Here is the input.
Amino acid sequence: MAAGGPINPPTRPTRWALGLGYAGLLPFVAGALLLWLLRGEAQGHVALALSAYAALILSFLGGIHWGLAMRQPAAATAGLVWGVVPSLLAWPALLMPAFSALVIHGALLLLSYAVDRRSYPAHGAAAWLGLRFRLSAVAALSCFIGAAAH
Here is the structure.
């Protein structure tokens, strides 16, 4: 591709995207499991780690919208605005008790999927919604199950 040429993402998730996406679920699932197995101070550290990871993933999900907005400048404003919303909502939750933050992060993961479900088709990325649904469902469920361990 020539410098400055168009960016054409794959029309559907590649094997690499699938593998990396599913690998990204490991901290969610392991964190939720550990929250049920551990007690005391260790449990609090795991809850904070899981909450921080969820906030990090939410920031990544928002960043996808910036990338999409760069591809279609005519529709850029909504993508740029939404691109910062997950980060701005996830960050203050990190200042809360970790078990409470997990509930907020789980809800934000579901909200992010709902926004993606509406916006991806307009960007030619509808084929990614199946993967997004599976990843979001497991991540959010892990947050909720982890929060319930408290």
